Amino acid sequence: MTTNIPSLADARVTLGDSGLQVCPICLGTMTFGEQVDEAEAHRILDRAVDRGVNFLDAAEMYPVPPRRETVGETERILGRWFAADPTRRQRVVLATKVAGPARGMDWIRDGAPDLKPEHIRAACDASLQRLRTDVIDLYQIHWPNRNAPAFGNLYFDPTKDQPQTPIDGQLQALGDLVQAGKVHAIGLSNETPWGLMSFLRRAEALGLPRVVSVQNPYALVNRVVDNGLDEVLHREGVSLLAYSPLGFGSLTGKYDAAGADPAQPGLGRLARFERMRQQRWARPETLAAAREYNALARRHGLTPTQLALAFCYRNWRVASTIIGVTTLSQLDEDLDAWPVALPADLLAEVDAIRWRLRDPAQ
Fold first, then answer.
1. pLDDT digits 0-9 by tens, 212-265
2. In whole angstroms, what is the distance from residue 210 CA to residue 199 CA?
3. For 97-149, what is each residue's pLDDT tens digit?
4. What is the largest CA-CA distance in the chain?
5. Cα 169 to Cα 319: distance, rounded to the nearest angstrom
6. For residues 82 and 42, what is the distance between their CA atoms, to the nearest angstrom?
7. Do residues 246 and 305 make contact, with C-beta atoms less than 8 angstroms apart?
8. Any transmembrane segments, and where (predicted)?
9. d(CA 144, CA 159)
10. Residues 6 or more apart in contact with residue 271 via CB below 8 angstroms
């Protein structure tokens, strides 16, 4: 099921109107410094770049799961990789993120409930220092600085609104960073259609930088993007960066034999970190849906990983798919899935499963 698809080294897409040319596969780095030690992280980075990946994504709060003892370590690992060979920084498009308001992490800005302009500017300076670079190519707000449904919360609850820095103030701070040459382009993450449109409208009204990308979950078990955000992205020319395309491992088949229990030792991050088993990716409904998609892949002669990744790689909505790995073999498996194309009848079966089960990892 392959077709005439450009190699990763030749395949490039432009993020919004930024001019940033990125690989359609992005290497996410949130495992670096927790599940992956520095030496292995550097080997993974070398292999990814050698195979044509030129896009890296990080965040000030990484690695995950976030802890006081490790916060910022992912960026430091990247910074030391850049410092060891200055040509590496020139070969990649570098993205990172400023954390939104406190979500139980009092070690970031003392748990401030509001992301203020001075926080954004200070966070960027700290990331630049850890990354050992003069400029961040894509700087993103990790989650909304307002009451909004995200990270598995299904509903908007207006009673939870509280005073917070409005979008104008956030945009002005990001614009200051662009004006200072510290940031090339700006993006959002875990954002809603209302949030994206509001950022776009206010940027136009104020003459401030326009959002070029949104980094949201997109996987067979979570296609919430298809429920309206995709129209906004398409009509406004904003690029989707799809994260968790393998559903925290559920779409690799590794949890199939464990039934509905993701805590079976040795299986992956859902088994290793109890707090992750409280998240949307470990819901019984998510694991049950994943097993159906995984079985569908096998019936069509594909591995579950190939189906899940090809669904994102070949999707018109997705500019770049963010993969997260802990080993070189996982990296190679994910990159080897790049040429896989999915026939129409298989995609129809995918949609039929979604019609029944919807988006259990929403």
1. 999 999 999 999 999 999 999 999 999 999 999 999 999 999 999 755 455 555
2. 8
3. 999 999 999 999 999 999 999 999 999 999 999 999 999 999 999 999 999 99
4. 54
5. 28
6. 10
7. yes
8. none
9. 17
10. 262, 263, 264, 265
**In b/e form, how buried is each residue of 22-55, taking b as 16+ CB within 10 angstroms?**
bbbbbbbbbbbbbbbeeebbbebbebbbebbbbb
Instruction: Provide the pLDDT confidence category of residue 274 given band limits of 50, 70 and 90.
Output: low
- 83, HSE (Cβ side, Cα atoms, 13 Å): 11
| pLDDT confidence band for 4 (50 / 70 / 90) | confident
The token duo for 123 is 């966070």
Report all structural domains of the chain as residue ranges with CATH numbers, in order of start. Answer: 13-257+283-357 (3.20.20.100)
* Sequence letter at residue 242: A
- Please give the radius of gyration of the chain, using alpha carbons only, rounded to the nearest integer: 19
CA atoms of 191 and 247, how far apart (whole Å): 18
Give the separation between CA 217 and CA 199, rounded to whole angstroms.
19
Tell me what percent of the residues of the chain surpass a pLDDT of 90: 91
For residue 322, give the amino acid letter: I
Please tell me the distance from the alpha carbon of residue 280 to that of residue 359, in angstroms, as a whole number: 10
Characterize 263-283 residue by residue with b for buried, 16 or more Cβ atoms within 10 angstroms of its Cβ, and e for exposed.
Answer: eeeebbbbbeeeebbebbbbb
Residue 28 is encoded by which pair of tokens?
Answer: 């996410």
227-237 residue pLDDT tens:
999 999 999 99
Token pair for 66: 């976030």
Distance of CA 302 to the CA centre of its chain: 24
Beta pairing class for 183-189 and 136-141 = parallel
Task: Please determine, for residue 199, whether its predicted confidence score (pLDDT) is greater than 60.
Answer: yes
Catalytic residue IDs: 62
Residue type at position 36: V
- Taking residue 12's Cβ as centre, other Cβ atoms within 10 Å add up to 17
| Distances, alpha carbon 172 to alpha carbons 44, 137, 183, 205, 223, in Å | 36, 18, 13, 12, 32
